[in-house]
Amino acid sequence: MHLPISISLLTLLPDLFGFSTEVLAKKSCRVQPGDPGFPSVQQWSQLSAQVGGRLVQVVPSAKFCHSLPAGNCTQDQWTSTTFRSTIPGAMDAYNWEQDYSSNPPSLCFQNGTTCDQGNVPLYAINASSGFDIQAGVKFAAKHNLRVAIKASGHDYLGRSTAKNSLLLWTRNLRNISFTGHFVRGGKDYGSAVTVGSGAPLNAIYTATKAVGKMFVGGTAATVVAAGGYVQGAGHSAFSPLLGLAADNALEFQVVVASGDIKTANEFENPDLFYALRGGGAGSWGVIISATLRTYPIFNATQHVVVVFAPTNASIGTIMTLHAKHIFDWDSKRAGQYFYAINGGSQGNFAAFSTYFPNSTADDAAAAMKPLLDDVQAMNFTILSQNTTVALANDLVFSPDDQLGVDAILGSRLIPADAYRNDPVSIGNSYTKLLELGAAQIIGHLVAGGKVAENANIDSAVNPKWRTAKAHVVAAVGWGDSTPLSVVEFIKESMTNQAVPILANMTGQADSGAYSNEADVREPNFQTTFFGGGARYQKLLQVKRKYDPNDLFIVAAGVGSEDWDAAGLCRVH
Ligand SMILES: Cc1cc2nc3c(=O)[nH]c(=O)nc-3n(C[C@H](O)[C@H](O)[C@H](O)COP(=O)(O)OP(=O)(O)OC[C@H]3O[C@@H](n4cnc5c(N)ncnc54)[C@H](O)[C@@H]3O)c2cc1C
């Protein structure tokens, strides 16, 4: 019989070749502290010397704060993403720094008296050049180390931190340069900006404004355009006018798993170029810089209105009205963030922040009027309403983001057809999500228009973006004192209850989601984030070509199904 023969052979093999089954098993795991083969102090010192002393030991953000002269961070520092981005071990949603599942849990809370390392990397290379990244990649590959890549630490899926890893930290790669004519393969793509993979959005908005240009970026201060943002797709309030960030990416410089720097564009390494535009953050290599299309600067009007919605049912009613009016702004190519905020005993709020490119304040107010008339006709109170006219860059510029929280997300790309066919069901879903305990439901009208028109671009962008009208996110948070069993309950509720409600909103059996703002436990992420089927197979092929040993594994990323949740041991 086949089976007993295999077993007897396996038991003999270790003796024959001089190593034990334990070592064989370990071979499929990353090398961790205490394992044979973990780099010695001397080897770490050599790496440090190679990168000019920029190898640093990493600690959780709370421990970093305790080490400051004041003995702690101020609350303003703790919640400032600009401040947090200077801490190598910090994640903005710092629940990702915790290892809730180890036994005992390995935790480090904001004002905790004890502090364990959790899921925070061991060492980081604070890179100042592509060479530093190359050195780190080669060192990690040679010693079979777990690698994490981080630019800002914004990631809502925790993909920029990893237990027992070497962190390749690109925050200080901040170059920004412009060209009037980006030419490759004899093709002139027009004006473009090349940004380092540490340059935050607010720095790029400032720089583009100074040269009379605009680019496709998000509404955030410290999100890094050439980091996770563009690899996920990258949406903007101006996407209905200009497309997604990935649609506007022209070239990348990337350190791949071999340690080589590759140029990826339409002509050179086009398969890598395909994957880097929408194929998911952190799975392909370490981006050093990206070149993004720029546009002549333009004015826009931001219209913000806040509505009081006493009950969860009233949020549902308002969001049904909104769903009926969501096509009102198409001709203006407006983008919009629309919020349902759970105010608890104070009642709820709905808010709509709409960006009208090349429009006056009067145009914007007129475009919003039909929705607001309907809202008032239902006796809801408008608490405030205002408009700001400014350069587009200034409207989406933000000096800082406020985080430093424990939070997770779940999301879906809601097709235009769902809004057309069943606005009432969309409104009802909002009520259900609030009743489930969602703190906020954040809608992003950042699709349609140019995003739909760009369906012909051959990239890994989830095709659901091309038929979507909006990206809707449910957010839930908790405090450090929340019992761990409740934290787990919250996570399970997100995956098993909130996300199915969002999926139901789509009216599709194979609904899609934006991989950068989503539930990391998404059960069928290959389809939900990346389109599944042949599209996912193509991404796997690119992965095998450029990263044959899976050096760059992130949760719910391409190839991650072969690894355990921590990315430390192969499961297949
Ligand atoms: C306040 C806030 C506002 C946001 N606004 C928007 C928005 O308007 N539009 C939008 O589309 N998204 C938005 N996002 C989501 C954002 O796109 C994601 O959080 C994204 O992952 C951030 O990328 P990052 O590189 O800045 O973050 P990080 O946490 O540093 O990294 C995120 C992922 O990218 C990988 N990565 C980082 N740097 C590199 C690199 N150099 N090379 C390869 N991989 C790298 C990491 O490994 C990780 O997987 C927002 C997030 C926050 C917190």
Automatic annotation (TrEMBL):
Recorded hits in Pfam families, A to Z, give:
BBE, FAD_binding_4
Q: Where is the signal peptide?
A: 1-25
Q: Please provide the record's keywords in A-Z order.
A: Oxidoreductase, Signal
Is this entry keyworded Signal? yes
* Any one GO molecular function term: FAD binding
The question of whether Iron-sulfur is a record keyword is answered with no
What residues does the FAD-binding PCMH-type domain cover?
A: 117-297
Q: Which PANTHER family match?
A: FAD BINDING DOMAIN PROTEIN (AFU_ORTHOLOGUE AFUA_6G12070)-RELATED (PTHR13878:SF91), GULONOLACTONE OXIDASE (PTHR13878)
Question: What family, per the record?
Answer: Belongs to the oxygen-dependent FAD-linked oxidoreductase family.
Q: What is the name of the protein in this document?
A: FAD-binding domain-containing protein
Organism of derivation: Rickenella mellea
